[in-house]
Amino acid sequence: MTGVQKEKFIIPIGPQHPALKEPAHFEFTVDGEMVTSASVRFGYVHRGLEKGAENRNWAQALYLLERVCGICSHAHSTVYALGVERLAGVSAPPRAQAIRQILLELERIHSHMLWVGVAAHEAGFETLFMYSWRDRETVMDILESFTGNRVNYSANTLGGVKYDLGPQQSDSILRGLDSLEKRLHYYLKVVTNDESFLRRTRGLGTMTVEQADALGAIGPTARASGVTRDLRVDSPYLMYADFPIHVITDTAGDLQARFVVRIKELFESARNIRTAMEHLPEGELAVRFPRKVRAGEVVSRIEAPRGGLFYFIKSDGGENPVRVKVRTPSLRNFMSVLVGSVGRQLADVPMILSGIDPCFSCNDRAVIVRRDGVPATEFNPRKESASQSKS
Amino acid sequence: MSIDIAPILKMLVFPGGLTLLALGLLYEYIDRKLVARFQNRVGPRVLQPLADTIKLLAKEEVIPQGVIPLFFVSLPVVALAGVLTAGLYIPMAGLAPAYSLPGDLIITVFLLGLLTLCIGLAGANTADRFSLVGATRTLTQLFSYEAPFLLALLCPAILADSWQISVVHRSVLGHVWMALPMAIGFFVAVIGLMGKLELAPFDAPEAESEIVAGALTEYSGRGLALFRLGKDVALVLGITLVAAFYLGGLANPLEFLLKTLGLLVLVAALQALFARLRIDQTVGLWWRIGALLALVQLLIVVLLKGVIL
Fold first, then answer.
1. pLDDT at position A369 over 80
2. DSSP 3-state assignment of B117?
3. What pLDDT was estimated at residue A4?
4. Smallest Cα–Cα separation from A199: which of B17, B38, B277, B92?
5. A11 and B39: CB-CB below 8 Å?
6. Rounded to 5 degrees, what are φ and ψ at A351?
7. How far apart are CA A49 and CA A363, in angstroms?
8. Residues B124-145: pLDDT tens digits?
9. In this structure, which CATH number among 1.10.8.420, 3.90.79.10, 1.10.1240.10, 1.10.645.10 belongs to the domain A49-348?
10. A384 pLDDT band (50/70/90 cuts)?
11. Which residues of B touch A347 (CB under 8 A)?
């Protein structure tokens, strides 16, 4: 209470706040309506999933890791399955790979449409929110008729997939895609033409290519800034080498560009699904998978809806994974929010935040900081004493 | 000893008091239902606003730390009393106003503005940061739309040579709708009304994705119920006033219902159409375009009047 220093006015957003659908804590120092600094704190929904995976066998961990994210669940189970299969020297049959890819792209459609609604809601554009979520039901119905579930499809198994794509499902997918594409054209028109909406998105949270690289942004957020980075093209997995996609980029780098890039990506997804279904390979759905996986380490990466998803999996030849490290794409995009908010209006902050399509619960990991100078290599928490300082 | 109960009835039952509250709840329902249907939602049931009000009234009112309790409790009462008083000067249901005096147009607009002022003060009274930002925005918005809104209402008043609502109302009755020759004024009045009522897209003062519930974040129970009722009544009064001035007057209750409901449909459609404006965009819009348009309209009215008469 010196009275000399100018008092800082801090607007806390979270851990509980209507703008956030998941808990995280942001502190924005404001001067009037202007944000002068920003900080973020995570860790409210750390669920110990990595540790949990170590205590399950290879197959059980698949179902656990599918629950890392409620939106891109298939991406998580696929990246894990691909990694473990590589480690075990097993390869899923081509038909299974194509079905995995179709599901990944369907999931991208549902994830991006969900995001369009959420971002419109943050802008106070409830009509677009309601419309895009209504049309998102089309793809949710497809996923449900295909796998029996709307989220956490549980379609993967180690060595293949569980569900086959019959003619009936193919028909419903094709019909759904047709109507979705019509609606997507409409939404593309709205986000590029609606004057009141453009006033909230154009020139907001702008990142140049250099900034996007320096801040480590990935996924559609980076592609909207002109970074041509997409794991589906850069290191093709599944059938992406046979059924390639075109990378959608934009040069504007602002929030509007992120809308445009995400919606255009969905046309690309729809095209890719059609191609994959036309050339769906015949054959088995799954191969036998061993109980024990030979010792080794593997890094598995795929392009999740929000960007590159990274898994590190380590085996000592036993029935359980020794270590599973998950790095979700949202974590790499948060820096762009903190940097992008400074100098903007408070009203723009929820928009900038939602612009990266954040998924908070997915990126909560425990980080073990060792201050005793012992190198962290070959660190196995199971063998270490339990008195490590965790933060 | 005889008591004249006519003034008491006027204040408590019609056109003030119960009638206004009932109409307020009904119009809130219609507004919410229409917006919901435009947005492809189901929307509330007819009695939902009433149920909300009763529930809030029955709930405990939490008085947070750091407020002046007297202000915290009395501001909602003053706000509601203000708008209910305003109802006495307005030709409700197409009948003559309960009270009428020269210059009551200014009184009515002031009493409607009192609601906003009370909401702003209520927000500034609490120590909550969301409330403080909300209060700042509420008062900022008050200063931006109030002048154009008043100017827009003055245009028919100047034609009628009176600032008395009942005289202006009588003068527009039977003539061509003022909304046709004074389209600009009508436009400014409707948009100004939406700004006054903090309806989307002018709902930056209560933008939930930024500042939770704005100035009223700390309010619960009775205080919140009274503020909500106040807003509902202000919606009815504002729509009635604009309809009376610009839509050819309200000759009878049926005309009143048709014209105000028609205006409500327009207002609801506008709510569903736009993304929320930032507070600086709202202020810029009003002072750069709204005020200018209202002044142009006023100028046209004054000039025409000079030429014709």
1. no
2. helix
3. 46
4. B277
5. no
6. -70, -45
7. 11
8. 888 888 888 888 888 888 888 8
9. 1.10.645.10
10. very low
11. 204, 207, 210, 278-279
Residue with tokens 């909207």, as numbered in its chain: A224
Average pLDDT over residues B189-215: 81
A379 interfaces chain B, CB cutoff of 8 Å: no
pLDDT above 50 for A379 = no
pLDDT value at A289 more than 60: yes
* B1 occurs within a structural domain: no
Give the nearest chain A residue to B268 (CA atoms). Answer: A127
Q: How many domains does chain B have?
A: 1
Residue B89 lies in a domain: yes
The C-alpha of B275 sits at a distance from chain A's nearest C-alpha, in angstroms, of 4
What does the pLDDT look like over A171-181, one tens digit per residue? 889 999 999 99
Which pair of tokens denotes residue A222? 């980076």
Q: Determine, yes or no, domain membership for B282.
A: yes
Interchain CB contact of A134 with B (< 8 Å) = yes
Residues 105 to 124 of A: which have CB under 8 A from any B CB?
A: 120-124
Residue closest to A277 by CA, chosen among A124, A98, A16:
A98
Secondary element (H or E) of residue A10: strand A9-13
Terminal-residue alpha carbon distance, chain A: 32
| Beta-strand pair A34-41/A9-13 | unpaired
Q: Which of A58-62, A167-171, B270-274 is the most confident on average?
A: A58-62
Check if B288 contacts A (Cβ < 8 Å): no
d(CA B202, CA A124): 10
Q: Contact A242/A389 with Cβ under 8 angstroms?
A: no
Q: What is the reported pLDDT for A206?
A: 84
Distance of alpha carbon A349 from alpha carbon A342, whole angstroms: 9
The answer to whether B204 and B114 are in contact (CB under 8 A) is no
Whether the bond between A321 and the residue before it is cis, its omega within 30 degrees of 0, is no
- A254, burial (CB in 10 Å: exposed 0-12, middle 13-18, buried 19+): buried
Q: For residue A57, what are its two tokens?
A: 């066998």
Alpha helices in chain A (DSSP H): 49-54, 58-65, 73-88, 94-122, 126-147, 167-193, 195-201, 209-214, 219-223, 231-234, 255-278, 329-341, 349-355
Q: Which domain holds residue B243?
A: 6-308
**Nearest partner of B265 among B25, B19, B32, judged by Cα:** B32
Structural domain includes residue B157: yes
Cα–Cα distance measured from residue B147 to residue B165, given in angstroms and rounded to the nearest whole number? 18
Structure confidence at residue B136 (pLDDT): 86
ipTM of model: 0.80
pLDDT value of residue A376? 53
Q: Measure the CA dihedral B298/B304/B306/B309, to 10°.
A: -130
Give me the residue spans of the domains in chain A. Answer: 49-348
- Provide the phi-psi class of A7: left if phi over 0, else alpha when psi is between -120 and 50, else beta: beta
Cα A267 to Cα A131, A306, B255: the distances in Å are: 18, 16, 51
